Amino acid sequence: MTTGIVLAGGQSRRYGSPKAFADYEGRLFWERAHKALLEGGCSGVVVSARPEHAGRFGDADVITDLPEFADAGPLAGICSAMKLRPADGFAVMPCDMPGIGPMEVRKLITLADPDADVTAVRTKNQPIPLFSVWSGELAGRIGEALARGERGVMPFLASLETEWIDARELNPDLSVFRNVNTPNEQ
């Protein structure tokens, strides 16, 4: 069983307003990510959100960071989701990559290495660590790293058995993996 995690708890400093609620081609960013994960093969989807926005996601299953991990970045959202909604595996997707759809999610889940701790995506020049599949057994290790003050996703992935998939295996059009950081980038 793979549960989807929509990372929608960022502070959106560069964007100027919460990115999760930005419109992209008629749908909010978080809705696009939620739909991609659900239709891409996840048995359920949880949205990791900031406490002040938790009531803005309609009927979605929403969690906020556990108190001991509050405001510690994406690893805190992933760890909190793992602890609150245990599953065998988690397909993680940030809300600010609105070009990713069900096809890319399905391919990622299918190609994920069952022996790896994490299977993540990369282009030739850039890792995309938050579009990834994580073992459901990692909550404790993530929690320990956060307790040590370690927040960086890339250093954490370097400490694990991480398999990297070329983004072109999911979609040859690499523009779908574009991260939107400002309204002008839409």
UniProtKB/TrEMBL annotation:
Q: Does the keyword Transferase apply?
A: yes
**Short name of one Pfam family:** NTP_transf_3
**Where does the signal peptide begin and end?**
none
* MF terms (GO), sorted A to Z: nucleotidyltransferase activity
Q: Which InterPro entries match?
A: MobA-like_NTP_Trfase, Molybde_CF_guanTrfase, Nucleotide-diphossugar_trans
Q: Which UniProt keywords apply?
A: Cytoplasm, GTP-binding, Magnesium, Metal-binding, Molybdenum cofactor biosynthesis, Nucleotide-binding, Nucleotidyltransferase, Transferase
Q: Is GTP-binding given among the entry's keywords?
A: yes
Top-rank taxon of the source lineage equals Bacteria
Q: Which residues form the MobA-like NTP transferase domain?
A: 4-160
Query: Could you identify this protein by its name?
Result: Molybdenum cofactor guanylyltransferase
Give the organism the record lists: Bhargavaea changchunensis
